[in-house]
Structure formats: C-alpha cells, structure tokens
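name: query_chain
kind: protein
chains: 1
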Amino acid sequence: MTEDLKELRFKCGFAKKNVKDRVYVYFWGYDGSGHKKEEYMGRADAIETQRKMLLTEITYIQSLRVEVDKRILELKTRLEALPTEEKPQP
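structure:
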C-alpha cells in the first residue's frame, strides 16, 4: 500500500536578487510532484514586473486546481474500486 501513497506539495513565492546594484524578481514554485521551477519576472521597480508577478501567481494557482482535481479523481476511482464489505480473515 505504501507505494500507492502520494504526497502533494505546493509552494510558491517571489525572490529578490541583487545584481550590480539592481534588484530583480524571480518567481519560484513547486508542482504537485515536488519539482521546483524558477522564472524571471523583471526588475523589482518596474510596473510591468508587478503585472507579470500577479499573472504568474494566478496561473500557478489555477494549475494547482487542475492538479488537485486530478488527484481527487484518482482517489475517488480507487475508493469506488474497493469491495463494499470486509472479507473475513481465515
């Protein structure tokens, strides 16, 4: 049974990095299987970076919904496949 156990891990955030007296923003996030991704957003002081950050976070959260929905479907399928009654042990 333990090989059937699946851990879902979802985290995300923004990191600021200083390069040559300028501050840049990166988005980082994990997918449902724990793989980390990082994406450049732009200069921290740019309005376009703020816009991109918001859109990126919305997209990420929407993808979480898809992952969670897939996992729920997997679990429901497994639940429906279980026998309805416990069989007596010999």
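note: The first helix runs from residue 47 to 81.
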